[in-house]
Design goal:
Layout: H1 6-21, E1 25-28, H2 34-45, E2 49-54, H3 57-67, E3 71-75, H4 81-95, E4 100-103, H5 118-124, H6 132-159, E5 164-168, H7 175-178, H8 193-211, E6 217-221, H9 239-250, E7 261-263, E8 266-267
Parallel strand pairs: 1-2, 1-4, 2-3, 4-5, 5-6, 6-7
Antiparallel strand pairs: 7-8
Amino acid sequence: MVPYSAALILALYMKEVINMNNKPVALVTGANQGIGMQIAKDLVSHGYTVLVGSRNLQRGEAAAKEIGVDAIALQLDVTDAATISDAAERIRVELGRLDVLVNNAAISNTGLSSEMTIEEYIRLHQASNISLDEVRTVFETNVFGVLAVTQAMLPLLREAPAGRIVNVSSRVGSLTLNSDPAYPSRKMFGPSYAASKTALNAMTVAMAIELENTRIKVNAACPGYTKTNLNNFAGTQTVIEGAKEAVRLALLGDDGPTGTFSNSAGQVPW
């Protein structure tokens, strides 16, 4: 008989403990900081085992330690097919279930100076002059990464008694709002970050349509202008406020909606 490795024994033990406790499992991407970390904290407080998705495993482990014993670090780079596949396999082997997927990981740019003003950002991110590499890089994380992770996790979510997918979007991607000349933030709408959220909203609708006859609900959450490194901490909300809508959607009951876009105040127009 081939002896079991210590890692496999630990994995089987973790799976058995979670099954015995009947604890639901959630995966939050980009959860080592900011809104993602707060979403993870909130889901733990609601009785979930939460997988803290992080490109850097050490940062993920530090975040999981801060969140608590029901948080587990999971190395996951949404732009890397190998880490996505490995993460899905680890969840299958070690936990045996996945009930909630929160697609939170996102970038706003490829490393512009923190000293840059809003006016400078707008000037450099217009359709007429923005770098195509910049657009591709932002879309790779904010759109293609979401689709890749969702595809990998969908077999597990289909097995869940009530699967939930929450895509963390933003009202800056609303075509309805930005088409209104009176909308005060419309000058911020550009081909990279804002348009990536428009595309993410489209992905949300596509996912919801495909899964509307299943037990899985798919919705998009707008956190609001929250203080995170995404905006150089210029936001006006705390991460506690910013996490609320995503958590609400993750915890929807059977009578909850699917295919919606909302913030803490209610529905946001596509």
